[in-house]
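Re: beginner question about structure tokens

> Can someone show what the tokenized structure looks like for a real chain? I only ever see the sequence side.

Sure, here's an example I had lying around. Input first:
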Amino acid sequence: MAKILVIDDDSVSRDIIREILEGVGHEVSEESTSEAGISTYKQGDFDLVIADLYMPERGGLDVIGKLVGADPDARVIAISGIDHREKLDIFHLAKQLGALHTLEKPIQPESFRVAVKDALENS
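And the corresponding structure tokens:
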């Protein structure tokens, strides 16, 4: 299956995402900071990145910009649990920067699996 990197400062979200992904056979690596996530991505050969949009230090928009800027073939799904009004703007920006999908937290397992499958099958 696929090698997926999850970048999220919330350990509960990472646990849920990991369980869903490993449950369908994917290999999962995790990072809790933007900087560590960018570094890990550069060192690995990842098929997909799941990035939280709001994290301490650098936000997910910066992560998406750096990943796609360095690797135009990078596949990213952006996630966020922020207030609904702000989601519309940040999700729009995430897609402009190259996110293939944007999903709200808490993650809904079925829609998450569909987005991951689509992101992996379509570049």
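Each token stands for a local structural state, so reading them left to right follows the chain. Residues 3-121 form a domain with the Rossmann fold fold (CATH 3.40.50.2300).
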